[in-house]
From TrEMBL:
This is G domain-containing protein. Keywords: GTP-binding, Hydrolase, Membrane, Nucleotide-binding, Transmembrane, Transmembrane helix. Residues 62-230 form the Dynamin N-terminal domain. PANTHER family: SARCALUMENIN, TRANSMEMBRANE GTPASE FZO1. The keyword Ion transport does not apply. The lineage of its organism: Bacteria, Bacillati, Actinomycetota, Actinomycetes, Kitasatosporales. Residues 290-647 form the BDLP-like helical domain. The chain crosses the membrane at residues 497-516, 523-542, 548-567. InterPro entries: BDLP-like_hel, Dynamin_N, Mitofusin_fam, P-loop_NTPase.
Length: 671
């Protein structure tokens, strides 16, 4: 009986969601048609895209987080419940898991009775793979250059898999680790634009770095539904100490909530899961282990959300986008009504007089390259100087650090002991260098880049505001039209557009996911995360697979210089290690300078291109609007009266569509 009741509830909720989606879709279609009729091509195109996204019958859930946090392991556990057996060639789940970064690119898992794989290229073409080939060849190589060769043409994988989690129209994305590699990080950021909710995975032993928390804060601020999972490494217990740390670090410090006082973390959708134990429990058919791992509680919450809330989240996202665009349509209608009622001679003369001003507005985007070049040069210089200073500090402190390394040489100095001692010292040197570079990228680089990007945002905001004021002044001169109290002028629409651009180009995930509801300044404020620690380390050639000082190579160098065993071996090993490492560090600023400059240059050039395009298209649409107003004004009185009637009907239609969008949201909320 309980199962029947649950099934009936699900059917009722599905029917209600379909009804709400249909109502909203009709309203957005109507708004797009009105925009087309007003020759607002850019606005119409965006409304049409919004309608398509709204009607998508899938709910996109992304599992994301820093590399090696256990995302793929967790996802394998979540996908373990299948509607029929699947031969995974000995793997415990369809996602590749390794002790090194393994996920090569985005993989979207959707329901299919029989497994299949499609590798989608950047050109939009697909190649069919077998599941066996995917399991063998989809993982990253230990050589970054080989990985680039193998995956440079693959944008993402599409996997069909008989997972119960996906059967109700849910697509789950396994994402490459954020901050592992710039290209793979960007693929993840782009994919967030089509996701409705996210599972953010942290690891308990390296918990909640600043970049990770900035990404989470951006997503929460933009209204994206977040499920936070702390992956319990090394059988770590979720005790009060860990719970209190997570609560204060995330809820209090990042989200502005209260301090830890024993609250239930699930109330904030925070869950502790031992992903490895969960995976073993799922594939070993051990329900008790699954429950003990924390996975069962997470699954229950996700199931409840997907049953009760997913449709409202999906609908709210796209109706909000449509509402913003509808306000722009309504503004243009108001301007055209004013124009149709304006004296023809006066309007014609005013328009002729403002042509030089329109030409000047059209040329304003040409100022942007110089602005971006100035801030790019400042960023390059500041980061290069900062990195050079950090490397100098590393050199100064290296000898003391190596001196403190405990080698534990015994009395019998055999070859094996010498090798072990050399490897211990080499690994300590490697860790010292990696830790310092990580700290530089996470702290100093952020502190330098963040304010620069905010100042750039301020200057661009000034430029956009000036364009908006100039157009408002032209409309006032042309027809006497003014922005209504509480209304949104041109600059308001542009700011929302640029917020999404900022998030997409500079790494602020929140701006990209929610379309920039927090505004341009908010997106730029979180954009310092573009140079995350592992992105910088990857750029500099430092990774678990390709460290800047490879321990094995350094250890071999140490052994080669020692000869036979003798007295003071530990001191000689340490001295030689410091000398070899210092030689590499001494030349590092010169070697890394061009790479750092190129990384910063590429980011600024991409942002410049996107910002320039959005400003230019906005200016073009507004200029076309003014030209159409003048043309309509110059028609005879009967045609002008007819135009006024059509505009009045259009304005009423916009208001009706907005009411319909709100009604659809209310329906979804009630469901």
């Amino acid at each position: 009986m309980a199962q029947h009741t649950s099934s009936t509830l699900a059917e009722m909720m599905q029917q209600g969601a379909e009804r709400a989606t249909g109502e909203a879709g009709v309203a957005i279609d109507g708004l797009a048609a009105l925009a087309r009729g007003l020759e607002m091509k850019e606005t119409a195109s965006r409304l049409e895209t919004t309608a398509l996204q709204l009607r998508s019958d899938t709910f996109n859930l992304m599992v994301m987080g820093r590399f090696k946090n256990g995302k793929s392991t967790l996802l394998n556990a979540l996908l373990g419940g299948t509607t029929q057996p699947v031969d995974l060639a000995g793997h415990q789940g369809p996602m590749i898991v390794d002790d090194l970064p393994a996920t090569a690119t985005l993989t979207g898992v959707r329901y299919a009775d029989e497994p299949y794989i499609k590798a989608w290229s950047f050109e939009g073409k697909s190649e069919s793979w077998s599941l066996d080939r995917y399991l063998r060849e989809s993982t990253l190589d230990i050589d970054e250059q080989e990985s680039e060769r193998r995956f440079r043409h693959i944008r993402e994988f599409e996997m069909g898999f008989p997972a119960r989690l996906c059967k109700a129209g849910v697509i789950v994305y396994d994402s490459p680790g954020l901050d592992e590699h710039p290209t793979r990080t960007k693929v993840t950021q782009e994919a967030t634009q089509r996701c409705d909710a996210a599972v953010l995975v942290y690891r308990s032993d390296v918990l909640m770095g600043q970049n990770e928390l900035m990404n989470a804060s951006d997503l929460v601020r933009e209204g994206t539904r977040i499920f936070t999972v702390v992956n319990l490494f090394h059988s770590r217990a979720a005790d009060d100490r860990l719970k209190g740390f997570v609560w204060n670090r995330y809820v209090r410090d990042q989200l502005g909530g209260p301090a830890w006082a024993g609250q239930e973390l699930a109330s904030r959708d925070i869950y502790f899961v031992d992903a490895e134990r969960a995976r073993r429990g799922v594939y070993g058919n051990d329900p008790e282990l699954v429950e003990a791992s924390g996975l069962a509680e997470l699954e229950r919450r996700l199931g409840d959300f997907l049953l009760r809330d997913r449709h409202h989240v999906h609908l709210k996202r796209y109706t909000t986008q449509a509402t913003h665009l509808a306000q722009s349509v309504d503004q243009h209608i108001g301007q055209r009504v004013k124009a149709a009622r304006t004296d023809q001679t006066r309007l014609r003369e005013a328009y002729a007089g403002m042509l030089p001003t329109l030409s000047a507005i059209r040329s304003r985007p040409a100022k942007l390259p110089a602005l971006f070049a100035r801030y790019r040069a400042e960023a390059e210089a500041a980061l290069t100087t900062s990195l050079t200073g950090r490397i100098a500090a590393m050199r100064d402190g290296l000898a003391d650090h190596v001196e403190g390394v405990e080698v534990k040489l015994g009395k019998m100095l055999g070859v094996l002991q010498q090798k072990k001692a050399a490897a211990t010292i080499a690994e300590a040197v490697q860790q010292y260098i990696t830790d310092h570079l990580s700290a530089w990228a996470d702290a100093e680089a952020q502190d330098l880049l963040g304010p620069l990007l905010k100042h750039l945002a301020d200057d661009i905001e000034v430029e956009i505001a000036a364009i908006g004021r100039e157009f408002d002044a032209l409309h006032l001169e042309l027809t006497g039209w003014e922005v209504a109290p509480g209304g949104k002028p041109l600059v308001g629409t542009t700011e929302r557009v640029l917020a999404a651009v900022a998030g997409f180009a500079l790494g602020g995930l929140g701006g990209a996911v929610a379309g920039g509801a927090a505004g341009w300044r908010g997106a730029a404020g979180g954009a310092g995360g573009a140079l995350g620690a592992a992105v910088v380390l990857g750029m500099l050639g430092v990774s678990p697979a390709a460290p800047i000082v490879i321990p094995a190579v350094l250890a071999a160098s140490l052994l080669g210089s020692m000869g036979a065993a003798g007295l003071n071996l530990e001191k000689r090993l340490k001295r030689r290690a410091v000398e070899d490492a210092d030689t590499g560090l001494r030349d590092l600023p010169v070697q890394l300078g061009p790479q750092l400059t190129e990384r910063v240059r590429a980011g600024f050039e991409e942002l410049e291109s996107l910002v320039t395009h959005e400003i230019t298209t906005t200016i073009e649409e507004e200029e076309n609007n003014i030209r159409s107003m003048v043309e309509d004004n110059q028609r005879d009185q009967d045609e002008r009266d007819q135009a006024l009637t059509r505009l009045s009907e259009a304005k009423t239609s916009v208001a009706g569509h907005l009411v319909q969008l709100q009604k659809a949201l209310t329906t979804a909320q009630q469901v």
